[in-house]
Amino acid sequence: MASVKGVNIVNLDAVPAILADAAEAHGRLRVWFDSYEASALASGSDITVARLPAGATVYETILHHGALGTNVTLQVGDAADDDRLIAATAAATAGKIVLSEDGAIDGFGHHYEAETDIRLKIGGAAATGTIKCAVIYALD
Q1: I need a labelling partner for 28 at 20 to 30 A (CA). Which of 57, 72, 132, 135 fits?
Q2: Closest Cα partner for 51 from 140, 109, 137?
Q3: Is the peptide bond before 53 cis (omega within 30 degrees of 0)?
Q4: What is the largest CA-CA distance in the chain?
Q5: Would you list the domain boundaries of the chain?
Q6: Integer Cα distance of 123 and 88 in angstroms
Q7: Which residue intervals of 23-118 are DSSP H helices?
Q8: CA 78 to chain centre
Q9: Residue 63 half-sphere exposure, CB side, CA atoms within 13 Å?
């Protein structure tokens, strides 16, 4: 059996110690919450639900949605990668979609160097219903 250390612990134990970014160790979590009431919003449309400041590191994205319609999917990302956080996931029936369970591994802990808008993208069919989103991120 092995005993190993994560990157930040290895750096902390180095001589001299290399301190982790505040967003990765003892950072303060912040949340951006928004909602949207879709009314036959066409497939391919996007909804801007958060504007993260430069230096934000994303640790969770939570979507709660009503029954949006047959074949409707939701995905979450940004202008550079429209499914960076959550790939297209079925949203025909009411439910929740979260980064920590349904998301992309590269989205978890993704660090934004510049101010960035987070967008939901509708796929599959037109969507009608309530969508609520919280993006939890660290900054400091």
Answers
A1: 132
A2: 137
A3: no
A4: 59
A5: 27-139
A6: 7
A7: 99-102
A8: 9
A9: 36
- Per-residue pLDDT, 136: 97
CB 84 within 8 A of CB 49: no
Q: How confident is the model at residue 70, as a pLDDT? A: 97
Low-confidence ranges of the chain (pLDDT < 70): none
Q: How far apart are CA 46 and CA 26, in angstroms?
A: 34
Binning the chain into helix, strand and coil, the percentages to the nearest 5 are 10, 45, 45
Is the separation of the CB atoms in 76 and 118 below 8 Å? yes
Domain 27-139 sits in which CATH superfamily? Satellite virus coat domain (2.60.120.220)
Q: What CA–CA distance (Å, rounded) separates 96 from 121?
A: 15
Question: Residue 71: which region, alpha, beta or left (left: phi > 0; alpha: psi -120 to 50)?
Answer: left
